[in-house]
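Q: My labmate handed me this sequence with no annotations at all. I'd like to see what the chain might look like in three dimensions before we decide whether it's worth expressing. Could you predict it?
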Amino acid sequence: MKTTDEQNVQTNREHKDSVFKLLFSKPEILRELYSAIEGVQLPPDIPIDINTISGVLVKGIRNDISFIIDKRLVLLTEHQSTINPNMPLRVFRYFEKVLNKIVDYNKAFNKQLIKIPRPKFIVLYNGKSSFPEHETLKLSDAFMDTEGLTGEKDPVSLELTVEVYNINHGQNKEIQQRCNTLNEYGIFIDKIREYESTGSLSR
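A: Here is what I predict for the chain of 203 residues:
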């Protein structure tokens, strides 16, 4: 059974996640978010299709935001208050579930090549622990060493990279300046922590 403090921490985390998902639930905001992170400007008429995986739909597997840009680029975006080195493995599972939703695997037996949206995986970090503004996590870092079996280091046959951005207030200022919603969310989290530290808000 969780203690009261643990329950409060869990409640606060769920509140932050709920606010994040609510803020970034509109295509125009997701267009702004992607443009800010990539340093590009997507045209306002570029279609954004949201296909976020729900925990209700897929037991044990869910993600915060998943969306497809112009049917060509699929982004899986996670909002995290702690950095988990297993995130590339988790995202790997998310992506497979997303493909199940958008690709007819029966066509994989045809001779014609199936085209799928190009994936990009992003984690937005806003935890209290110190973390660089940007870091890349790789699935290959989790692969076991096989050099003792083959006598040489085997090349990586499968790779998946997750780009982690620190979105705490004051971090990645250029990105936050380009995405006002992200900047306001960072200020919101900063204020919550300020109230927590003064005892004005239950931890």
